[in-house]
């Protein structure tokens, strides 16, 4: 095996490669690293020479990675993670004296239900911590983890690709909420009334038809979705005093701001549960701060879930 010319290996080249692979743009990668576009172009040229591969080729307005670049992505991620967390890591993390920032991505639902609990759990042990809650959804969380350099995200997400790890926090079920005076309904709600009363629907992606509608159709039934909102915060005030019924997560229905004056009932048709998970980038598990953060978040969410189940 030929001897490596270590003098030609610059750690900054790996950082530049990672930024280019993430941004797929020389100018965007340069902005991310706060260097000039010409400096980034020079780094790309050195990378091509060092690795004997073009690494990226232009396709429209983007720089598409070669197969070699894609294969190197995870290796470079791991190398930089080891250097950052194991070699250049600061002294052991101490929650009591920590005054840095924890950056957490949460879906609308997760933020509304859990943000206060998480803040209390973190500040209980780290009174000087700064906490930044950043909105994410199942479609954009991967990009926002990179862009905002999030420590972790919380919510209901599809299958994760390579480069991420997750921990299940709890399984959430659904209930129906309605104003008994405005609708004339009482619990339990029959399938006939479930289809007769107009529905309000929380639809993060703006779709009017859900798995519930497909199940109803298989039973030769149909509901009338009259209004949709992309935000759970709207629903409580929307259905109060109106002839509307809405399916919401159970924990959401237990929050007084949402449920005051409303009746909670089991849906007249089976509505699938969903999993709330905590997701983070691979390679962070050995970081003391990350371990502490994940432990505090999991404890806050799961303890709350146990408490609610006793009601």
Automatic annotation (TrEMBL):
Residues 9-66 form the HTH lysR-type domain. The keyword Transcription applies. Pfam families: HTH_1 (PF00126), LysR_substrate (PF03466). Keywords: DNA-binding, Transcription, Transcription regulation. It comes from Vibrio inusitatus NBRC 102082. Belongs to the LysR transcriptional regulatory family. The keyword Zinc does not apply. PANTHER family: HTH-TYPE TRANSCRIPTIONAL REGULATOR LEUO-RELATED, TRANSCRIPTIONAL REGULATORY PROTEIN. This is LysR family transcriptional regulator. GO terms for molecular function: DNA binding; DNA-binding transcription factor activity.
């Amino acid at each position: 095996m030929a001897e490596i010319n270590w003098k030609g290996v610059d750690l900054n080249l790996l950082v530049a490669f990672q930024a280019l692979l993430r941004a797929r743009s020389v100018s965007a990668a340069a902005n991310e690293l706060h260097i000039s576009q010409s400096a980034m172009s020079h780094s790309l040229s050195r990378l091509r020479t060092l690795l004997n591969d073009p690494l990226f080729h232009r396709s429209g307005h983007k720089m598409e990675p070669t197969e070699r670049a894609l294969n190197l992505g995870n290796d470079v991620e791991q190398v930089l993670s080891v250097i950052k967390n194991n070699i250049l890591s600061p002294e052991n993390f101490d929650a009591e004296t920590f005054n840095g920032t924890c950056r957490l991505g949460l879906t609308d639902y997760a933020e509304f239900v859990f943000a206060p609990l998480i803040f209390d759990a973190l500040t209980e042990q780290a009174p000087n911590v700064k906490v930044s809650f950043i909105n994410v959804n199942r479609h954009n969380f991967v990009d926002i983890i990179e862009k905002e350099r999030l420590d972790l995200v919380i919510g209901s997400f599809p299958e994760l690709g390579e480069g991420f790890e997750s921990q299940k926090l709890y399984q959430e079920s659904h209930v129906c909420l309605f104003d008994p005076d405005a609708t004339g309904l009482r619990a339990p709600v029959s399938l006939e009334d479930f289809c007769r009363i107009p529905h309000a629907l929380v639809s993060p992606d703006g779709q009017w038809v859900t798995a519930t509608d497909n199940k109803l159709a298989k039973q030769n039934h149909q509901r009338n979705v009259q209004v949709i909102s992309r935000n759970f915060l709207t629903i409580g005030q929307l259905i109060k005093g109106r002839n509307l019924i809405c399916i919401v997560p159970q924990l959401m229905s237990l929050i007084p701001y949402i449920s005051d004056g409303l009746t909670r009932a089991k849906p007249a048709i089976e509505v699938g549960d969903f999993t709330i998970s905590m997701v983070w980038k691979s390679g962070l598990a050995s970081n003391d701060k990350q371990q502490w953060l994940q432990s505090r978040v999991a404890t806050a969410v799961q303890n709350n879930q146990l408490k609610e189940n006793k009601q």
